[in-house]
Amino acid sequence: MDWWGIGLILVAGIAVVVYGAFDDRRKTRERDAAMAAPPKRDIPRFEPTSEPPQYLSELQARTRPTTLPRSDLTEQQRSDLRTALGAAPSVAVGVPDDRFITDAAGGWAVAADPVVAVCAEPADTVRALLPLLEKAKRAGHPLVVAAPRFTDEVTDTLAANTVRGTEQCIPLTVTADQAAAITEHTLATPLSRSDLQAGWVPDDALGTVEVWVADRSRSWLVQRTES
Description:
By secondary structure, the chain is of the alpha/beta class. The protein is built from 7 helices and 8 strands, in the order αααβββαβαβααβββ.
């Protein structure tokens, strides 16, 4: 074989080796990037044509829209409710801050015909409460949710829902005895974290009262009276 032929083979061989080395490095980088990236997950109920989510500033989350109707009671309603509270059972637990107050003059959070849920374990994420929020929203009722603990993130989200008029919520941080009193008066059944994560919230696990009234330190459960 001529020397030029041998040289051509050597050049072609070197080119193949160099290309293979660069291609192998490229594939390695792509594989490493794929392994480091979060797994692809479809978002439930997400439509590609949906409007992007709107995020609220801290000021917006604390400001009631001017287009929402007033939530304050009239003087007569406040007087009638104060009379009803005198005969209503109560629990020594109130709302965590003033963002949940709906009647400023009375200092009360007033929820008419609410859905009452008792969580057996701390509410550490908003996602865990989504089944409750969605069920109350679909039913058109406020949500009262009692749990041993709420994180600041969960409390802020529930407060923003209330202030913005998306869904009225009354979160209550309760002891075991207070949770037992609420289940007794509302007939709610405590829900475990695994139940909520699975979205298992049967209607008969949720309690009801005619009106739930809470200030910063106490809640009153105004019951329906038999006619």
